[in-house]
Fold:
Amino acid sequence: MTGKKRIAGIELGGTKIVCGIATGAGDVLQRTSIPTRGPEETLIDIRTWLEPRLTDTTGLGIASFGPVYVDPASPRYGHIGTTPKTAWRDFDLLRAIREWTELPLALDTDVNAAALAEIRWGAARGHDNVVYVTVGTGIGGGIVANSRAVHGLMHPEIGHMKPRRLPDDDFDGLCPFHGDCFEGLAAGPAIQARWGKQLNELPADHPAFAMEADYLGQLAVNLLLTASPTKLIFGGGVMSNTELLPMVRDAAARHLNNYLDLTDPSNGPEEPIVTPGLESNAGLLGAVALVIDAS
Amino acid sequence: MTGKKRIAGIELGGTKIVCGIATGAGDVLQRTSIPTRGPEETLIDIRTWLEPRLTDTTGLGIASFGPVYVDPASPRYGHIGTTPKTAWRDFDLLRAIREWTELPLALDTDVNAAALAEIRWGAARGHDNVVYVTVGTGIGGGIVANSRAVHGLMHPEIGHMKPRRLPDDDFDGLCPFHGDCFEGLAAGPAIQARWGKQLNELPADHPAFAMEADYLGQLAVNLLLTASPTKLIFGGGVMSNTELLPMVRDAAARHLNNYLDLTDPSNGPEEPIVTPGLESNAGLLGAVALVIDAS
Structure:
C-alpha cells in the first residue's frame, strides 16, 4: 500500500525551497515554493508551511544543496559544509528540523535525491547506474551506483572538477575555491558574467551556446568515464533551454572520439544523455524517495 | 569453509598475464607469469599452465585489461572492446577459455577486480567505496561503489579523461583516441617518450616527477569528486617509485584547494590516497575475489 502513504519532502535549494506532500506513488498532492534566505528565517518559513500539513504523513525527506554531511556515522551528520553561501556554513539543518517534528527524517543531497526519484518515477526507470547533474546557480551532481546513492568521502561534488579550457576563452571563472572549474565557468552566474545575458536571452547560434555545450560535454565525458551511468540526466535552470542538450551530446561524442560508442546497441537502445522526466518536481520527489528507500 | 576452497585466477594484462591458484582466504598457492602476445598464442600459454592445475578448484576468475564487455546481458559479453592492442580487439576471451573448462567463470576488469581484492584482503579493508587506479602501460581504474564493482555503460575508463595541461608542457600525448588524455600524458610510455627514461631512472627533483604528480593529482581530484572513494589506491609500475605518492597527495590537495578536507577527522582518521596492500598479487587475487563474490 506504498502508494496510499503520504510523505513530506523538502527540497532545499540555493535560491528557493520547495516543500510538499506526495503519495508513495510519486503524486504531488500539495507544494509550495519559498525563497532561500538565511538559515533561521528560512527554517521558520518551512516550518510555518509544513508543520500543519504533517498529520498522517509517515516521514519527512530532506534533499539539500551540498556540501552537506549525509553519513549518519559522522559527528557532523545533518550539517551544511563549506558552502559559498556563508550564512549556511556549518548550519545544523537536521537538528533545526528535529526541533518541531518527531517524524522519521531522511537526508541526502538534492542531486542524489533527484537521481533516485528519476529512477523511481522519471527518465531513468529501470536503470541501476544513473547520474543527475544540475546546471543552475551552481553545478552539482548526484550519483546512483548499483541502485544506491554514492556517498563515500562526503558525496559527489562533480561541479568542481576542472575542464580543459577552450583556446579562445580567457574568462577567470567565478568559483571562490577553484576559479575556472566547471561550476566557475559554466553555471548560470558564469554565463551572465561572461555574456551579460542568460542563454534564453541569446540566439542559439550565439557563441555562448557552443562554449557552454563544450564544457558540459566535457563534464558528461568525465562522468561517463567514471560513474559509467546508463542514464546521465542534465537538469537545472540552464538546461531549460531546449537548444542546449543536443549540443551537449555532440560535444561529449566529439571529446570521447569514439572511445565509447554511445549509440552501441549493446549498451542498450536508448540515448544515455537526457533531460529530467520529473522536471521541477525532481528534487521534491527525490526527498520523498529518500523516505521510501529508508523505510 | 571459504578459506579451504581452491580458486583459480587469471590476470590478463597488457604486457603480462598472471595465472595462479589461491585459497578462498586470499593465500596464493601457485602462480606464474606469461608475456602477453597475440590472443591465440597467449591463450595456449594460459591453458598449458592452468588446465592441469584446475583439479579441485571451485571456479576460475578472469581479471582482464579493458575495455572488455562485462555485462552478462550484453551480446558482446566476454569480448575485448576497442583496445589500442589491435590484435585483441573484439576477441571473445570468455569463449576461448570456455573451450577447455566447465568451471564456473567470473569476469571483470583487472582494476575492478583489484579494487575488490584490496577491500577483501588489502589496503581498503572495511571500505565500501573504493577506487583502484593503475598507472603503467596505460592508466585504468576500477570503482567499487556501495560494495559492488561499477559497470553501467561499459565500465569506468578513467584514464581517458582529460587533465588541465600544465603551462610549460607541450607534449602531444600518446593516446590514439585522445592524444593528451591522462593516459596519453602520464602512463609509462608517455614518461619514456617525454624524458627518454622512466621515473626510477631519474632523481626525485627532476621535473618529470612534479609533472607526473600534478597530472595524477588532477586524476585523484576527478575521482574524489565523482566516485567519492574513502580509499583511492594508486598501483601499477609507475607507482612503484616511492617518491611519487606523497607528491600526488600534495598535488591533489593543491587542486582541491580546501574544498574537500582530506584530513577532516569526520571523513575518518586515515589518509584516503594510498598504494596497494596486495602489491603484485592484487590482480590475481582480484580474479579470485570475483569467483567468491559470484558464488
Notes: The two ends of chain A are 13 Å apart (CA to CA).
